[in-house]
Structures are given as structure tokens and as C-alpha cells.
TrEMBL record:
GO terms for biological process: methylation. SUPFAM superfamilies: S-adenosyl-L-methionine-dependent methyltransferases. Keywords: Methyltransferase, S-adenosyl-L-methionine, Transferase. One of its GO terms (molecular function) is methyltransferase activity. It comes from Leptospira barantonii. InterPro entries: Glyco_hydro_b (IPR013780), SAM-dep_methyl-trfase (IPR019614), SAM-dependent_MTases_sf (IPR029063). This is SAM-dependent methyltransferase. Residues 108-222 form the S-adenosylmethionine-dependent methyltransferase domain.
Amino acid sequence: MKTVKKTETPSLDGSYVLIDSGDFRKLEQIGPYTIIRPSPVSAWPATKPNLWKNVHGEYVRSDKGGGAWTWNKKVDEEFYIQILEYSIKIKFTPFGHLGIFAEQLENWKKIQKLSAGLKKEEEVLNLFAYSGISTLAVLDGGASACHLDSSKGMVDWARDNATASGLADKKVRWMVEDVLKFLKREIKRGKDYRGFILDPPTFGRGASGEVFKIEKDLPELMDLLMQLCDNKPDFIVLTCHSTGFSPLALQRILEGRIRNKGRFHLGELSIPEESGRLYPAGSNCIYVSERLSL
């Protein structure tokens, strides 16, 4: 199997801008609002300290866990921005999330292209699917999708995004369930998937309180996925933000299980700042079978 290495540097055309980062924080513009959020990796000085003074709000973590927003100016509780061809709902959640991970932009484009190479009835499974932009890319490409997340609130959010983007009438299953339980049930049903999209969390809880720990559960998860494609997937988009899971490590996890010929595309996810510097944002590994092209 061939391997291609690349660093992904998305541009969201003004709907989201990473203005600056440093001192363990990042300065962002999302729609009309400028905000500050924590950034554990930003162990460097800010490039443009003067720009940090007049912001709409900041999310500050508590020493006791969690955190809260502090607002200096009035903001809408929710609003929509345009990403590619999709209308995406943005909310300032109590956890500090917004509803997008900007470093995934290039992957969304690739998912749309890969899905366009599948037949309409062939299905792609999006696990830990969050607000569903990857699911929209699958539907936009013309394939069927199964959107799986343990949070009903996030699945509802994703459905809103599909409706706002004019994709609600496409063939998609919206599932609220623990990932491992769902996969085992799908295996018993004899389901077949042609593509998989996943960004597994370091730690997570299922719909009924099940605990997921990446260092313990990722091998079982990958083995279950292989049973849903006879170890011959047409594509897998695997990204990770957990320490130790480099692009090469992700490739090794996949290539030891995949039985058909294809190519790996490896890279470090990143977001360009206004200064031109790149903000590191995770590991990226995409497998594409010989049936498809990227």
C-alpha cells in the first residue's frame, strides 16, 4: 500500500478565522463574533497581543473542571454560517464548543469526493459524528449515510444542519447510541458499509453512560468496523486529537486490518492563522481503496 504525506491547511472564507494563538489560548472569529477559547497546545507567545483586547467573550476553564463563557458584548444564542455548500448552526455551548472543527475542512471536501464514487445505495458510517458536517458531505456526494452519536442533542443539531443545507430528504439514518453496542448489533444484522469516518475521543460516554477510552477501546472498535466491510473498505477517514496517536500510528492501526489494495494519505491537521503560521490540530489518516480516487 502506498502512503502520501501532507499537512492540511483549510480556509473557511471568513465564516471562521483563527486570528491568533498563544499563552494557551486562541483568538477566533466565528461569524460576526470575536471570541477567546482555551488552547492547551499554544505554549508560545501571542503574535498580535493588541487584537485580544476588544472581544465579544471568552470561555474560561475552571480549576474544578468544566468552564463558562464570560460575555463583554451581546451575542445571538445560535446562528448559521456557510461552510462549503452547507448552512451550519453555531452555538456557544456550556462546554466551550461551537459546532465545527475548522481543521476538518479539507476532509469534508475529500469525503464529498469519495462518496461521489460510491453507488447511491452504498452506505457510509460516520461515528462520533458530532454536528454532522461529514454526514452532509456524504449525502452531498450522493451516497447513503448513517450518522451515529451518543448525544441526542448533537444528533438533533446535525439534523438541523441537514435541513438548513437542503439535504434532509437524502438517505440517512440518525442514530443515538453507544458506538460499540451499535456496531455489534449491525454485525448481527449483516450490515455492510463502504466507508467509515471517525474522530474517536480520548474519553467519552455512551448514550447509557458507557465509557469509551481510546487507548483501551480503539482496537476493538477497528476490529468491529472491519467486520462490517469484510476487511475491505472503500475508504476510511480516521482523525485523532489524542496524545501519542500520530498519523503514522493511525496508519499502522488500519493497515494491519485492511485486506484490499489502496493508498494511505497521512498528514497533520492544522488551521492557518492570520499571521500565516499554522495552528496544530491533530492527526489525519485517510485510506482509499483502488476503486476510488482522491
